[in-house]
Amino acid sequence: MNKTLIALLSVGVLASACTATGNTERNAAGGAALGALAGAVIGNNVGGGSASTGALVGAAIGGTAGAVKGCREDGGCGATNVNRRQYYDERAGRYYYYDSRSGRYYWEDGSPR
């Protein structure tokens, strides 16, 4: 049990420290590590007393929650720009908006203009 928990935590810490691609991966790895730890503690103390099952369930839930949080921080997964004023491009026949966080213009569907 202890070896499984240590392995899960080590992988989570190393993955969260080594990723350089974005918030989604970093938060997913961190969420999985924290979820595995919490799941192992809860699984050991509740029900059948299986810490490894609790760690797996906690890692899955924590990883998913972390990935969604990171995706929203990156501007995806349903995150919306609250103060988004749209403009109409007559030549293209499409609407676009300016994102003040990135300093770039985007089409209405979110693709770069």
Tell me the domain tally: 2
Class inferred from helices and paired strands = alpha+beta
Low-confidence stretches: 16-20
Shape, per Cα inertia axes:
rod-shaped
What is the helix content?
55-70%
Our Rg estimate from Cα atoms comes to 20 Å
Number of strands: 3
Distance between the termini: 52 Å
Order of helices and strands: HHHEEE
- How many individual helices? 3
Give the strand order of the largest sheet, numbering strands 1, 2, ... along the chain. Answer: 1-2-3
Please describe the biggest sheet, giving its number of strands, its sense, and whether it closes into a barrel.
3 strands, antiparallel
Description:
There is one protein chain. With about 110 residues, the chain is of the alpha+beta class. The chain folds into 2 domains: about 1-75; about 80-113, no CATH class. It is about 55% helix and about 10% strand. It is built from 3 helices and 3 strands, in the order αααβββ. It has a 3-stranded antiparallel β-sheet, with no helix packed on it. Strand 1 (about 85-90) and strand 2 (about 95-100) form a beta hairpin. The radius of gyration is 20 Å and the shape is rod-shaped. Residues about 15-20 have low confidence and may be disordered.
